[in-house]
Amino acid sequence: MASWRPQARTQVLLDQIATVLSDYADHLPLTGRQVFYRLVATMDYPKTENAYKNLLEVLNRARRAGLVAFDDIRDDGVTVIEPDGFDDMSDFGALSPHGPPATVATGKLARASRARCGSRQLAWCTGGACGRTLRRPRLLLGGL
Fold first, then answer.
1. What pLDDT does 75 receive?
2. Which of 27, 29, 63, 90 has a Cα at 20 to 30 A from 131?
C-alpha cells in the first residue's frame, strides 16, 4: 500500500466518495465517471473537466493507499497488452494451419537484433527508429 495522508479538503471528497460507494453497494463496481456524476447530482461537486480529473487522481491515490477498495471501481479505460512472444518456431507456426504469417514490412530497421531459429530467420526491434515506426517492438519473420 502506498502511504498517503490526504489534506482536509481531500478527506471531505473521500467521505463523499465513500457515501456514493455505500449507496450503490449493490451495483459495484462503479466507474470513475459514475462516481463523478453521483457527486455532481447529490453533493454539489463541480461539473468541470478539472473537477473530474481531480476526482480520478484522488480515486487513484486512495485506491493505492487502501482507502478505497480496488474492486469498488471499474477501470474500463485500461487496456492490457501482453507482449508478443513465442517459445520456438513450432509455437509460432501454430498460429495458423497454413504456417507462419508473411514477413511484416517495416521499412528501415534501426538497431534490429537478428537470430536464426531452424530454417527461418527471426528479427526483433530493440528501439530507435524501428520502435518509432512500429510504436512497439514486433517479431519479424522472413529473409532479413
1. 83
2. 90
